[in-house]
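Dataset card, provenance and construction

Sequences and ligand SMILES were collected as paired inputs. For each pair, a complete structure of the chain with the small molecule in place was predicted and serialized as structure tokens. The example below shows a pair involving pyridoxal-5'-phosphate. Curators did not alter the output after generation; any descriptive sentences attached to a record were derived from the structure itself.
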Amino acid sequence: MTTRREQAQHLDQQDPLAHHRDAFILPADTIYLDGNSLGPLTHAARAAVCQTMDDEWGQQLIGAWNTADWITLPQRVGALIAPLIGAGEADVICADSTSINLFKVLAAALDLRPGRARLVSERGNFPTDLYIAERAVARAGHGQAVHWVDSVEAIDGLIDDDLAVLMLTHVDYRSGAMHDMQAMTAKAHAAGALVVWDLAHSAGAVPVDLAAAEADFAVGCGYKYLNGGPGAPAFLYVSPQLQAQARQPLAGWFGHVAPFAFATGYEPAAGIKSFLVGTPPVLGMRALQASLSLWGDVDMTDIRRKSVALCQLFIQTVEAAGCDDLVLASPREAGRRASQVSFRHPDAYAVMQALIAQGVIGDMRSPDILRFGFTPLYTRYVDVFDAATRLIAIVRDRVFDDPVYHQRAAVT
Ligand SMILES: *Cc1c(COP(=O)(O)O)cnc(C)c1O
């Protein structure tokens, strides 16, 4: 009889994505289930950053802006992200952080709907999105108000002639629950509103089709499932229909039609380029660009199939142990869940610390969420089985009661 662990190993042997794991630098004896927070280092990113430093910065100095084409990195990296989110290559640009990009697109969206009274989003959204939205609404000065709601039903109740902007994070960072992008966008459009999508936990994790959904604006993160490295630059999308009218508030020289004319008056560049602000962070963009090259021959339907299977294996293995203290916090239905699984536990922080001490890295989100990200390019079925088995043992044997697991670090 084969054991459950051997069954997992068998799935790995048959996995068409298995060879991608070799592209990553992963420490030995570590099961990394936190690629949804910080994607691991890739061999390609490491080589690209070394080459950029040694050859380009080191030898070509300032000339590299032209000779190594640093100047067009925001567009070229955006074009690599585009196919992962169902966007045209000219409609995505790599720049700044997710927070800053969100401010830019929200400001642009609010200014396109000045006569409408409200911006709607979810109270459970990632806090930076909420803070940024409050400030974007205040800056717009159209007398608009922010409404935070707690359910899709409550959102539906606020979709009417007064809705200016619906801002949604496609995948909830705590639970991994996923919105129906097409349906939500269509509802808001039917009322004449604009929709801004945050793809932080979607890009590279689940298939996204911004064009098919007719999304207006989107932003997303470079250091999570795209493996761009700590603090990697983020991206933003503006639908081609809106690019001529949409104006972002941070008029910097890189968004100018002719930055090197050094003109005193601001005149925005055409298209998505007007959403740039200042000089691109070249080293970070090079790392992201190199990691994005891994996706060239990857089919997102294969990613999705494996992601669903990994999540399912984790849930089943954990729940089979029958620990009452571990309660699934993600949708049970695969179609409503992205590429992460969360469980609640009253001592989530200590449980995660104990798990990390045993070589399984996930993370904890306040107050009681244990979060596990599954990244089909390098997560193996056997990793998922082993992680679940260790989690169960820690909870069952109360390993987490040890005081060393209760000391808090700054980043959880
Ligand atoms: C990760 C994440 C961010 C991160 O924003 P930064 O500006 O990169 O710090 C923003 N929003 C959501 C929904 C996220 O998941």
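Derived descriptions for this record:
The mean pLDDT is 97.
The pocket of pyridoxal-5'-phosphate is lined by residues 97-99, 126, 128-129, 169, 173, 198, 200-201, 221, 234 (CB under 6 Å).
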